[in-house]
């Protein structure tokens, strides 16, 4: 059975201010915990996954990533290392909140995993239904998309569907649980993790993001017959994506 992507994370230099930015931009409900310098996020989008916004440890570089749900964190890390990945953060437990670990894939992307927490209700992580922007797509990109797709298939049991253009290879992952996503190649040869929120108007949302202090990195761009995407850097340098899909 394929392991689902169930959580996203945006980490910057000031988690409290960053949580305010995303709440204003996307209508997310955030709950900031000062002692943890971290805000839990209910996207209020009725679909997709919830996440968190926080402050990086020790002044580390801002980043965005996603978390995969697994049954056993250490066993999964063992499989990851057998397939060319590396442990970044060994299994840690915050009682009654989360059990997690992080790894880097063979391309250098840092991705997280969450394990089961005894007594936690299954629906605890589901977005409420409202007017927020649902987070419902993820990406892991690297210089060798085919090798990266093989890695994730071996580690998490993901079934991928490959497509190719003259300068880009992309493997789509259609999830039964969690959210769907893709594994692709990069023009610059560097690793990139992207997380995307669904919006009804890319240009208007980008304009709003820029007024709040963000910077457009990719204007609305058609990537499929019915799909457009855009990317921005938030005020603290985290890269975040948006997409619009015509059904």
Q: Could you list some keywords that capture this structure?
A:
single chain; alpha+beta; 2,3-Dihydroxybiphenyl 1,2-Dioxygenase, domain 1; eight-stranded mixed β-sheet; 4 helices; 45% strand; globular
Question: Mean of residue pLDDT?
Answer: 93
Distance between the termini: 28 Å
Strand content: 35-45%
The gyration radius over C-alpha positions equals 17 Å
Identify low-pLDDT runs: none
Order of H and E elements: EHEEEEHEEEEHEEEEHEEE
Helical content class: 10-25%
Number of domains: 2
CATH topology of the largest domain, which one?
A: 2,3-Dihydroxybiphenyl 1,2-Dioxygenase, domain 1
* Largest beta-sheet characterization: 8 strands, mixed
Number of strands: 16
CATH arch. level architecture of the largest domain = Roll
Number of helices: 4
How would you characterize this protein structure?
The structure is a single chain. The chain has 247 residues and is α+β, with helices and mostly antiparallel strands. The chain has an eight-stranded mixed beta sheet with strand order 2-3-4-1-5-8-7-6. The mean pLDDT is 93. The chain folds into two domains: 121 residues, 2,3-Dihydroxybiphenyl 1,2-Dioxygenase, domain 1 (Roll), CATH 3.10.180.10; 111 residues, Roll (2,3-Dihydroxybiphenyl 1,2-Dioxygenase, domain 1), CATH 3.10.180.10. The protein is globular, with a radius of gyration of 17 Å. The protein has four helices and 16 strands.
């Amino acid at each position: 059975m394929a392991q689902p992507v169930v959580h996203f994370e945006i980490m910057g230099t000031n988690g409290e201010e960053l949580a305010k930015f995303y709440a204003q931009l996307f209508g997310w409900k955030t709950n900031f915990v000062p002692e943890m310098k971290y805000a839990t996020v209910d996207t209020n989008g009725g679909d997709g996954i919830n996440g968190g916004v926080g402050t990086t440890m020790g002044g580390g570089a801002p980043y965005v990533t996603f978390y995969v749900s697994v049954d056993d964190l250490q066993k999964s890390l063992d499989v990851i290392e057998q397939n060319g990945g590396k442990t970044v953060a060994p299994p840690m437990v915050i009682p009654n909140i989360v059990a997690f670990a992080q790894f880097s894939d063979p391309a250098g992307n840092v991705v997280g995993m969450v394990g089961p927490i005894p007594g936690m209700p299954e629906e605890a992580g589901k977005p409420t239904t409202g007017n927020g922007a649902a987070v419902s797509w993820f990406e892991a990109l690297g210089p060798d998309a085919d090798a990266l797709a093989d890695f994730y298939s071996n580690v998490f049991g993901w079934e991928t569907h490959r497509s190719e253009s003259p300068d880009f290879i992309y493997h789509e992952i259609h999830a039964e649980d969690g959210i769907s996503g893709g594994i692709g190649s990069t023009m610059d040869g560097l690793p990139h993790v992207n997380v995307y929120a669904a919006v009804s108007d890319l240009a208007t949302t980008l304009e709003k993001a820029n007024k709040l202090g963000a910077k457009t990195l990719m204007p609305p761009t058609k990537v499929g017959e019915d799909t457009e995407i855009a990317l921005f850097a938030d005020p603290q340098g985290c890269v975040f994506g948006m997409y619009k899909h015509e059904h």
